[in-house]
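re the bet — no i am not wrong, look at it urself. input seq straight from the record:
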Amino acid sequence: MSGAPRLPWLPLLATACLSAGLLLVACGGGPAPSPEPTATVAPPDATPTAPSGPVALEEVAAGFKRPTFVTHAGDGSGRLFVVEKSGIIRVIRNGAVEAEPFLNMTSFVWSTGNEQGLLGLAFHPKFKENGRFFVAFTAQDGANSVAEYRVPAGSTRADPATARRLLAIPDDRENHNGGMLAFGPDGYLYIGTGDGGGAGDTRGTGQSLNTLLGKILRVDVDSGTTPYGIPPDNPFAGRSGARPEIWAYGLRNPWRFSFDRATGDLWIGDVGQDAREEVDFQPAGSKGGENYGWNAMEASACFRPSTGCARDGKVPPASEYSHAGGACSVTGGYVYRGSRVPAIAGAYVFIDYCDGQLRSLRPDGNRWRPGVLLETSLNVSSFGEDEAGELYVVDDTGGRVYRLVAGAP
Protein backbone atom coordinates (compact mmCIF):
# COMPACT_ATOMS: atom_id res chain seq x y z
CA MET A 1 0.00 0.00 0.00
CA SER A 2 3.03 2.26 -0.01
CA GLY A 3 2.12 3.53 -3.47
CA ALA A 4 -1.36 4.67 -2.43
CA PRO A 5 -2.03 8.40 -2.84
CA ARG A 6 -2.02 10.61 0.21
CA LEU A 7 -5.15 12.26 1.52
CA PRO A 8 -5.18 16.00 0.82
CA TRP A 9 -8.58 16.61 2.35
CA LEU A 10 -8.18 16.27 6.09
CA PRO A 11 -5.67 17.22 8.78
CA LEU A 12 -3.84 13.96 9.42
CA LEU A 13 -3.22 12.74 12.93
CA ALA A 14 0.11 10.88 12.86
CA THR A 15 -0.60 7.89 15.11
CA ALA A 16 0.94 5.13 15.28
CA CYS A 17 -8.00 -14.81 4.74
CA LEU A 18 -9.90 -16.14 3.67
CA SER A 19 -10.50 -16.16 -0.09
CA ALA A 20 -10.83 -12.88 -1.96
CA GLY A 21 -14.47 -13.72 -2.59
CA LEU A 22 -15.38 -12.99 1.01
CA LEU A 23 -16.04 -9.55 2.37
CA LEU A 24 -13.97 -7.74 4.97
CA VAL A 25 -15.42 -9.82 7.77
CA ALA A 26 -13.38 -12.78 6.63
CA CYS A 27 -9.98 -13.33 8.12
CA GLY A 28 -9.88 -11.35 9.27
CA GLY A 29 0.26 -7.16 31.07
CA GLY A 30 -2.01 -4.43 32.39
CA PRO A 31 -4.54 -3.95 35.11
CA ALA A 32 -6.42 -7.07 36.03
CA PRO A 33 -9.55 -7.49 33.93
CA SER A 34 -12.90 -6.96 35.56
CA PRO A 35 -14.63 -10.05 36.92
CA GLU A 36 -16.02 -12.45 34.36
CA PRO A 37 -19.77 -12.32 33.75
CA THR A 38 -21.99 -14.43 35.92
CA ALA A 39 -22.90 -16.35 32.77
CA THR A 40 -19.66 -17.89 31.55
CA VAL A 41 -18.38 -19.70 28.51
CA ALA A 42 -20.41 -22.49 26.95
CA PRO A 43 -18.51 -25.64 25.99
CA PRO A 44 -16.95 -25.38 22.49
CA ASP A 45 -19.40 -26.67 19.88
CA ALA A 46 -22.11 -27.25 22.45
CA THR A 47 -25.13 -28.70 20.68
CA PRO A 48 -27.38 -25.78 19.78
CA THR A 49 -30.92 -25.75 21.03
CA ALA A 50 -33.72 -26.14 18.53
CA PRO A 51 -34.75 -23.07 16.54
CA SER A 52 -36.45 -20.84 19.06
CA GLY A 53 -38.13 -18.22 16.85
CA PRO A 54 -39.98 -18.79 14.92
CA VAL A 55 -37.99 -16.07 13.14
CA ALA A 56 -38.17 -14.85 9.56
CA LEU A 57 -36.43 -12.19 7.49
CA GLU A 58 -38.48 -9.53 5.75
CA GLU A 59 -36.83 -7.59 2.91
CA VAL A 60 -36.75 -3.85 3.55
CA ALA A 61 -34.73 -2.52 0.62
CA ALA A 62 -32.47 -3.75 -2.19
CA GLY A 63 -30.03 -2.47 -4.79
CA PHE A 64 -27.07 -1.69 -2.54
CA LYS A 65 -23.49 -2.35 -3.63
CA ARG A 66 -21.65 -4.41 -1.02
CA PRO A 67 -23.36 -2.88 2.02
CA THR A 68 -21.35 -3.08 5.24
CA PHE A 69 -23.60 -1.62 7.93
CA VAL A 70 -27.06 -0.24 8.74
CA THR A 71 -28.04 2.02 11.62
CA HIS A 72 -30.30 4.86 12.73
CA ALA A 73 -29.57 8.45 13.75
CA GLY A 74 -31.63 8.59 16.94
CA ASP A 75 -33.28 11.77 15.70
CA GLY A 76 -36.88 10.59 15.52
CA SER A 77 -36.91 10.62 11.71
CA GLY A 78 -37.34 6.87 11.32
CA ARG A 79 -34.59 6.82 8.70
CA LEU A 80 -32.16 3.96 8.24
CA PHE A 81 -28.63 4.66 7.00
CA VAL A 82 -26.93 2.01 4.87
CA VAL A 83 -23.15 2.10 4.45
CA GLU A 84 -21.66 0.89 1.16
CA LYS A 85 -18.10 -0.38 0.98
CA SER A 86 -17.12 2.07 -1.79
CA GLY A 87 -17.72 5.09 0.45
CA ILE A 88 -21.41 5.99 0.08
CA ILE A 89 -24.03 6.24 2.82
CA ARG A 90 -27.59 5.85 1.57
CA VAL A 91 -30.91 6.56 3.29
CA ILE A 92 -33.99 4.38 3.59
CA ARG A 93 -37.04 6.44 4.45
CA ASN A 94 -40.51 4.92 4.68
CA GLY A 95 -39.30 1.78 2.95
CA ALA A 96 -37.80 3.57 -0.06
CA VAL A 97 -34.14 4.26 -0.84
CA GLU A 98 -33.61 7.97 -1.44
CA ALA A 99 -31.87 8.84 -4.70
CA GLU A 100 -29.46 11.34 -3.15
CA PRO A 101 -26.84 9.85 -0.81
CA PHE A 102 -26.52 11.10 2.74
CA LEU A 103 -22.75 11.25 2.12
CA ASN A 104 -20.44 10.37 -0.76
CA MET A 105 -16.80 10.03 0.29
CA THR A 106 -15.65 7.65 -2.44
CA SER A 107 -12.85 10.03 -3.40
CA PHE A 108 -11.28 9.55 0.02
CA VAL A 109 -11.90 5.85 0.65
CA TRP A 110 -9.51 3.09 -0.41
CA SER A 111 -11.80 0.14 -1.12
CA THR A 112 -9.73 -1.96 -3.53
CA GLY A 113 -8.90 -4.70 -1.02
CA ASN A 114 -11.65 -7.11 -0.06
CA GLU A 115 -11.62 -5.95 3.56
CA GLN A 116 -11.07 -2.27 2.85
CA GLY A 117 -13.57 0.52 2.36
CA LEU A 118 -16.13 2.49 4.34
CA LEU A 119 -16.72 0.14 7.26
CA GLY A 120 -18.53 1.86 10.13
CA LEU A 121 -20.87 4.68 11.09
CA ALA A 122 -21.95 6.09 14.45
CA PHE A 123 -24.20 9.06 15.11
CA HIS A 124 -23.48 11.26 18.10
CA PRO A 125 -25.99 10.70 20.95
CA LYS A 126 -27.03 14.33 20.49
CA PHE A 127 -27.05 14.19 16.69
CA LYS A 128 -30.47 15.82 16.53
CA GLU A 129 -29.01 18.92 18.20
CA ASN A 130 -25.43 19.01 16.91
CA GLY A 131 -25.52 17.16 13.56
CA ARG A 132 -22.29 15.26 14.32
CA PHE A 133 -21.52 11.73 13.17
CA PHE A 134 -18.42 9.57 12.73
CA VAL A 135 -17.22 7.12 10.10
CA ALA A 136 -14.56 4.40 10.06
CA PHE A 137 -12.78 3.66 6.79
CA THR A 138 -9.54 2.73 5.12
CA ALA A 139 -8.12 5.89 3.63
CA GLN A 140 -6.24 6.28 0.36
CA ASP A 141 -2.99 6.42 2.30
CA GLY A 142 -3.78 2.94 3.65
CA ALA A 143 -4.45 4.10 7.21
CA ASN A 144 -7.33 2.70 9.24
CA SER A 145 -9.12 5.95 9.93
CA VAL A 146 -11.93 7.63 11.82
CA ALA A 147 -13.38 10.95 10.71
CA GLU A 148 -16.09 13.31 11.92
CA TYR A 149 -18.68 14.97 9.67
CA ARG A 150 -21.56 17.31 10.35
CA VAL A 151 -25.03 17.89 8.98
CA PRO A 152 -25.81 21.63 8.83
CA ALA A 153 -28.89 22.86 10.66
CA GLY A 154 -31.95 22.57 8.45
CA SER A 155 -30.34 20.03 6.11
CA THR A 156 -30.84 16.29 5.75
CA ARG A 157 -27.45 15.66 4.13
CA ALA A 158 -23.89 15.72 5.43
CA ASP A 159 -21.62 18.59 4.40
CA PRO A 160 -18.39 17.09 2.96
CA ALA A 161 -16.53 20.30 3.82
CA THR A 162 -16.93 19.59 7.54
CA ALA A 163 -14.72 16.47 7.36
CA ARG A 164 -12.13 16.15 10.11
CA ARG A 165 -9.98 13.07 10.51
CA LEU A 166 -9.51 12.14 14.16
CA LEU A 167 -7.53 8.97 13.88
CA ALA A 168 -5.19 7.42 11.30
CA ILE A 169 -3.53 4.13 12.21
CA PRO A 170 -0.82 3.24 9.67
CA ASP A 171 -1.38 -0.19 8.12
CA ASP A 172 0.51 -1.75 5.22
CA ARG A 173 -1.79 -4.77 4.79
CA GLU A 174 -5.26 -4.98 3.33
CA ASN A 175 -7.07 -7.13 5.86
CA HIS A 176 -8.12 -7.08 9.53
CA ASN A 177 -9.12 -3.42 9.58
CA GLY A 178 -11.83 -3.61 12.24
CA GLY A 179 -14.20 -0.78 11.39
CA MET A 180 -16.94 -0.80 14.03
CA LEU A 181 -17.87 2.42 15.80
CA ALA A 182 -20.42 2.80 18.59
CA PHE A 183 -21.16 5.22 21.38
CA GLY A 184 -21.35 3.50 24.74
CA PRO A 185 -23.86 4.22 27.49
CA ASP A 186 -21.16 6.45 29.00
CA GLY A 187 -21.21 8.75 25.96
CA TYR A 188 -17.69 7.83 24.84
CA LEU A 189 -16.90 6.61 21.32
CA TYR A 190 -15.68 3.01 21.07
CA ILE A 191 -13.61 1.99 18.04
CA GLY A 192 -12.76 -1.55 16.92
CA THR A 193 -9.39 -2.17 15.26
CA GLY A 194 -8.01 -5.37 13.72
CA ASP A 195 -4.53 -6.75 14.35
CA GLY A 196 -3.19 -5.22 11.14
CA GLY A 197 -3.58 -8.18 8.81
CA GLY A 198 -1.61 -11.07 7.53
CA ALA A 199 -2.02 -14.40 9.25
CA GLY A 200 -1.29 -15.32 12.84
CA ASP A 201 -0.54 -11.76 13.99
CA THR A 202 3.17 -12.17 13.33
CA ARG A 203 3.80 -8.64 14.64
CA GLY A 204 2.17 -9.45 17.96
CA THR A 205 -0.14 -6.44 17.93
CA GLY A 206 -2.99 -8.19 19.72
CA GLN A 207 -1.00 -8.55 22.95
CA SER A 208 0.97 -5.31 22.65
CA LEU A 209 -0.16 -2.26 24.60
CA ASN A 210 1.94 0.21 22.61
CA THR A 211 -0.07 -0.11 19.39
CA LEU A 212 -3.69 0.69 18.60
CA LEU A 213 -4.08 -2.43 16.43
CA GLY A 214 -5.99 -5.46 17.73
CA LYS A 215 -7.99 -3.43 20.23
CA ILE A 216 -11.18 -1.74 21.20
CA LEU A 217 -10.44 1.93 21.82
CA ARG A 218 -12.41 4.40 23.93
CA VAL A 219 -12.14 8.14 23.30
CA ASP A 220 -13.93 11.33 24.28
CA VAL A 221 -15.07 13.32 21.24
CA ASP A 222 -16.72 15.99 23.43
CA SER A 223 -13.72 16.98 25.53
CA GLY A 224 -12.76 19.98 23.40
CA THR A 225 -9.29 18.45 23.01
CA THR A 226 -7.93 18.00 19.49
CA PRO A 227 -8.30 15.46 17.96
CA TYR A 228 -10.06 13.80 20.93
CA GLY A 229 -9.75 13.43 24.66
CA ILE A 230 -8.79 10.42 26.75
CA PRO A 231 -11.38 9.43 29.38
CA PRO A 232 -9.53 9.71 32.69
CA ASP A 233 -10.70 6.25 33.78
CA ASN A 234 -9.41 4.45 30.69
CA PRO A 235 -7.49 1.42 32.03
CA PHE A 236 -4.10 2.41 30.60
CA ALA A 237 -4.35 6.19 30.85
CA GLY A 238 -1.11 7.52 32.29
CA ARG A 239 0.74 4.22 32.04
CA SER A 240 4.17 4.40 30.44
CA GLY A 241 4.55 2.29 27.30
CA ALA A 242 0.81 1.86 26.76
CA ARG A 243 -1.58 3.73 24.48
CA PRO A 244 -4.14 5.55 26.63
CA GLU A 245 -6.92 5.02 24.07
CA ILE A 246 -6.99 1.26 24.71
CA TRP A 247 -10.11 -0.11 26.40
CA ALA A 248 -9.67 -3.84 25.65
CA TYR A 249 -7.04 -5.88 23.82
CA GLY A 250 -6.13 -9.36 22.62
CA LEU A 251 -8.45 -9.11 19.60
CA ARG A 252 -7.88 -10.35 16.07
CA ASN A 253 -10.56 -8.54 14.09
CA PRO A 254 -13.52 -7.34 16.17
CA TRP A 255 -15.47 -6.62 13.01
CA ARG A 256 -18.75 -5.99 14.81
CA PHE A 257 -19.48 -5.22 18.46
CA SER A 258 -22.53 -3.74 20.16
CA PHE A 259 -23.91 -2.48 23.45
CA ASP A 260 -27.09 -3.97 24.86
CA ARG A 261 -29.39 -0.96 24.91
CA ALA A 262 -31.16 -2.30 28.02
CA THR A 263 -28.20 -3.32 30.20
CA GLY A 264 -25.12 -1.63 28.74
CA ASP A 265 -23.29 -4.96 28.34
CA LEU A 266 -20.75 -5.08 25.52
CA TRP A 267 -20.78 -7.97 23.00
CA ILE A 268 -17.88 -8.52 20.59
CA GLY A 269 -17.81 -10.80 17.55
CA ASP A 270 -14.09 -11.47 17.02
CA VAL A 271 -13.20 -13.16 13.73
CA GLY A 272 -10.95 -16.19 14.18
CA GLN A 273 -7.98 -17.58 12.26
CA ASP A 274 -8.45 -21.00 10.64
CA ALA A 275 -10.25 -23.00 13.30
CA ARG A 276 -12.58 -21.11 15.65
CA GLU A 277 -14.89 -18.11 15.85
CA GLU A 278 -15.66 -16.37 19.12
CA VAL A 279 -18.13 -14.07 20.80
CA ASP A 280 -16.78 -12.10 23.75
CA PHE A 281 -18.78 -10.53 26.54
CA GLN A 282 -17.93 -7.57 28.76
CA PRO A 283 -20.47 -6.81 31.50
CA ALA A 284 -21.73 -3.31 32.07
CA GLY A 285 -19.71 -1.63 34.76
CA SER A 286 -16.43 -3.14 33.63
CA LYS A 287 -13.38 -1.00 34.30
CA GLY A 288 -11.85 -2.08 31.00
CA GLY A 289 -8.45 -3.63 30.41
CA GLU A 290 -9.77 -7.07 29.43
CA ASN A 291 -7.38 -9.28 27.47
CA TYR A 292 -9.33 -11.56 25.12
CA GLY A 293 -6.30 -13.69 24.33
CA TRP A 294 -5.28 -13.26 20.68
CA ASN A 295 -2.70 -14.31 19.49
CA ALA A 296 -1.74 -16.51 22.42
CA MET A 297 -5.18 -18.06 21.97
CA GLU A 298 -7.78 -18.51 19.26
CA ALA A 299 -11.01 -18.53 21.24
CA SER A 300 -10.38 -21.01 24.10
CA ALA A 301 -7.64 -22.96 22.26
CA CYS A 302 -3.91 -22.29 22.40
CA PHE A 303 -2.63 -20.70 19.21
CA ARG A 304 0.93 -19.49 19.85
CA PRO A 305 2.28 -21.78 21.13
CA SER A 306 -0.18 -24.46 20.02
CA THR A 307 0.01 -26.10 23.43
CA GLY A 308 0.84 -24.83 26.89
CA CYS A 309 -0.07 -21.21 26.22
CA ALA A 310 -0.36 -18.78 29.14
CA ARG A 311 -4.05 -18.51 30.01
CA ASP A 312 -3.73 -16.42 33.16
CA GLY A 313 -5.35 -13.01 32.91
CA LYS A 314 -7.18 -13.79 29.67
CA VAL A 315 -10.94 -13.61 29.45
CA PRO A 316 -12.48 -16.69 27.77
CA PRO A 317 -15.14 -16.22 25.13
CA ALA A 318 -18.80 -16.31 26.06
CA SER A 319 -19.27 -18.69 23.16
CA GLU A 320 -17.29 -20.16 20.30
CA TYR A 321 -17.76 -22.53 17.38
CA SER A 322 -15.53 -24.33 14.92
CA HIS A 323 -15.31 -24.06 11.15
CA ALA A 324 -16.84 -27.49 10.77
CA GLY A 325 -19.81 -27.55 8.42
CA GLY A 326 -18.72 -24.54 6.39
CA ALA A 327 -18.54 -21.80 9.00
CA CYS A 328 -15.73 -19.29 8.52
CA SER A 329 -16.29 -15.85 10.00
CA VAL A 330 -18.48 -14.55 12.80
CA THR A 331 -20.59 -11.45 12.19
CA GLY A 332 -21.41 -10.02 15.59
CA GLY A 333 -24.92 -8.75 16.21
CA TYR A 334 -27.10 -7.30 18.98
CA VAL A 335 -29.18 -8.30 21.94
CA TYR A 336 -32.76 -8.19 20.69
CA ARG A 337 -34.78 -5.52 22.47
CA GLY A 338 -37.53 -4.95 19.91
CA SER A 339 -41.20 -5.98 20.00
CA ARG A 340 -41.77 -7.76 16.67
CA VAL A 341 -40.23 -11.07 17.77
CA PRO A 342 -41.01 -11.55 21.48
CA ALA A 343 -39.75 -15.15 21.35
CA ILE A 344 -36.14 -13.91 21.15
CA ALA A 345 -36.41 -11.02 23.61
CA GLY A 346 -33.11 -10.66 25.47
CA ALA A 347 -31.21 -13.07 23.21
CA TYR A 348 -27.93 -12.06 21.61
CA VAL A 349 -28.35 -12.58 17.84
CA PHE A 350 -25.41 -13.13 15.48
CA ILE A 351 -24.50 -15.11 12.35
CA ASP A 352 -21.67 -16.75 10.46
CA TYR A 353 -20.84 -15.12 7.14
CA CYS A 354 -20.26 -18.40 5.29
CA ASP A 355 -22.78 -20.92 6.61
CA GLY A 356 -25.60 -18.39 7.00
CA GLN A 357 -26.83 -19.74 10.34
CA LEU A 358 -28.65 -17.06 12.29
CA ARG A 359 -27.65 -17.92 15.86
CA SER A 360 -28.48 -16.83 19.37
CA LEU A 361 -27.03 -16.87 22.87
CA ARG A 362 -29.18 -16.91 25.98
CA PRO A 363 -28.17 -17.02 29.64
CA ASP A 364 -28.58 -20.50 31.09
CA GLY A 365 -27.38 -20.76 34.65
CA ASN A 366 -23.67 -19.98 34.63
CA ARG A 367 -23.19 -20.20 30.86
CA TRP A 368 -24.48 -18.84 27.58
CA ARG A 369 -26.56 -21.41 25.73
CA PRO A 370 -26.22 -21.33 21.91
CA GLY A 371 -29.18 -21.78 19.59
CA VAL A 372 -29.94 -21.66 15.87
CA LEU A 373 -32.79 -19.34 14.95
CA LEU A 374 -32.84 -19.67 11.17
CA GLU A 375 -30.94 -21.28 8.31
CA THR A 376 -30.24 -18.74 5.55
CA SER A 377 -28.27 -18.60 2.32
CA LEU A 378 -27.12 -15.05 2.97
CA ASN A 379 -23.61 -13.65 3.35
CA VAL A 380 -24.37 -11.27 6.20
CA SER A 381 -21.79 -8.55 6.64
CA SER A 382 -23.52 -6.77 9.51
CA PHE A 383 -26.51 -6.28 11.74
CA GLY A 384 -28.08 -3.02 12.80
CA GLU A 385 -30.80 -1.58 15.01
CA ASP A 386 -33.49 1.00 14.38
CA GLU A 387 -34.68 3.47 16.99
CA ALA A 388 -37.23 1.00 18.36
CA GLY A 389 -34.64 -1.76 18.83
CA GLU A 390 -35.75 -3.87 15.87
CA LEU A 391 -32.92 -5.81 14.24
CA TYR A 392 -31.79 -5.73 10.62
CA VAL A 393 -29.32 -7.82 8.67
CA VAL A 394 -27.20 -6.64 5.75
CA ASP A 395 -26.62 -9.07 2.88
CA ASP A 396 -23.22 -8.34 1.35
CA THR A 397 -23.40 -10.25 -1.92
CA GLY A 398 -27.15 -9.79 -2.45
CA GLY A 399 -27.10 -6.06 -1.71
CA ARG A 400 -30.23 -6.22 0.45
CA VAL A 401 -31.32 -5.16 3.93
CA TYR A 402 -33.72 -7.41 5.87
CA ARG A 403 -35.62 -6.97 9.12
CA LEU A 404 -36.11 -9.72 11.69
CA VAL A 405 -39.81 -10.55 12.11
CA ALA A 406 -41.79 -13.35 13.67
CA GLY A 407 -42.15 -16.37 11.42
CA ALA A 408 -45.20 -18.46 10.75
CA PRO A 409 -46.43 -20.42 13.78
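see?? The helical segments are 127-130. told u. also The chain has one domain: 55-406. so pay up
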